[in-house]
Amino acid sequence: MPVQLASAHAKAHAAHLAVGLKERSPYGVALAGLVREHLAQTARELEESVRDARGYEYAVINDHAFFPFRYADKPRPLDRARLPSNALPTRRRLFRAHGPQPPEGLFDLDDGLATEEHLGLHEAFEELGASTKLVCVFFTADAENGIHTIHWGEAHLEPDGTFTWLYKEQLPLAPVPLE
Asked: 0.70 exceeded by the pTM?
């Protein structure tokens, strides 16, 4: 995982420099796509699955779909990670359907009271497989300094966009390859 992120950073940084813009969006967009591509390539090399969910390829290894997410462009503690309020509904659905379920609540939501939108968030992506679990790969990175930190584990998405981690592990960083 660290090697794939370092390699994706190197290519995203090169794309960022080639575009020549001062703003950082070319780096972030390139990095997001490259990380998914690198993880998909690793899955193929391991003769595992790569599945398309709504136009995005996800590496699925041993029935675990890997969800990479850059949660900050500065070094930040993992507990500061948030899914932006304008995040695509697909991302929320991935967490609701394939992530760990929340602990028992004070009140159960009666299925008769749930809206279609609420129920839709819990439908599994057939493309990933109903039993596939989500593995979160959260990291911070910027164009100048590369990858700062990498964590992976199981996280439940809270209604306010924060995450409750059931299990997490910090991974070591890999050197950026020379292109």
From this structure: yes
